[in-house]
Write a structure and sequence with these properties.
heterodimer; A: 134 residues; B: 131 residues; mainly alpha; 82% helix
Chain lengths: 134, 131
């Protein structure tokens, strides 16, 4: 039994050691930052999706179409995804990496995620309202 | 300057990266603020089509050129000093960010300017889905 426990502990230790080594590697910071930058660009320019949607759907479906309305709801929901991932990535960047500027860059990611989620959500809701009411 | 293989030290690289991220973060906000001032504030004060407003767009062009140009420059600087694949990726992303933001700036400015200078033509285009 002791032998078994020792064996498992050794395997667990090795796994934990590997995880810690990966997390503390210098390049993980840059990997997180590069993923965060991609998400940041998506979050910042997401309103273009609404604009193109309006151009494409305006004539074909009609202003009060339920299908168009549902599509806008889906697009609004989709807008939240990169924002949430960006917030989580910012938190992970602060927690797991060891760069001096991790707090600054992590805070920018979290703020961008929050602002993006709010404004893209607001824009989606306004689009939805305008399609129903005007 | 150190060679490309060696790259700059981690602290300096991270500092430039931090400046680039902050710059990219504020650049689009500045654009939207300018858009807001151009459209709303000037309209409220009934100077919507004055010469000053038209000149305001030239100030915006200059501002966008400076902000995005510096962002692009920082991207190139990071890229030229990157010694790993992940660092290079970060450099490329900053360069792309600079270009995309500049194009977006120009687009917003040009649409605003077009609407102010020729509102009739602009709205005809808009209603026919050409824009």
């Amino acid at each position: 039994m002791n032998f078994e426990e020792g064996k498992y502990m050794k395997i667990l230790d090795r796994i934990l050691e590997k995880i810690n080594r990966i997390e503390k590697e210098e390049d993980v910071f840059y990997k997180y930052v590069s993923i965060g930058l991609v998400l940041l660009i998506i979050v910042q320019y997401y309103p273009i999706v609404f604009y193109f949607f309006e151009l494409i759907e305006f004539d074909s479906v009609g202003k009060y179409g339920i299908v168009a309305s549902l599509k806008i709801m889906f697009l609004t929901f989709l807008a939240a995804m990169p924002s949430v991932v960006l917030i989580l990535l910012g938190l992970r960047l602060i927690e797991k990496t060891d760069s001096r500027y991790r707090y600054g860059i992590g805070t920018v990611f979290i703020l961008s995620g929050l602002i993006g989620a709010f404004f893209n959500g607001l824009l989606g809701c306004l689009e939805q309202t305008s399609w129903w009411d005007i | 300057m150190k060679s490309n293989q060696q790259g700059m030290d981690k602290d300096r690289f991270d500092k430039y990266l931090f400046i680039a991220v902050i710059l990219g973060f504020i650049s689009l906000k500045v654009s939207f603020l300018a858009h807001f001032f151009g459209r709303e504030v000037f309209y409220w004060y009934s100077v919507y089509r004055s010469t000053f407003v038209i000149h305001f767009f030239y100030i915006q062009y200059a501002l966008s050129f400076l902000l995005c140009g510096y962002l692009f420059f920082l991207g190139v600087k990071l890229l030229s000093n990157a010694n790993t694949l992940d660092k290079r990726r970060v450099g490329y992303m900053i360069i792309i960010w600079g270009i995309v933001t500049f194009v977006f700036y120009l687009l917003i400015n040009e649409l605003e300017r077009m609407e102010i200078k020729n509102p009739e033509i602009f709205h005809t285009l808009l209603s026919n889905n050409y824009l």
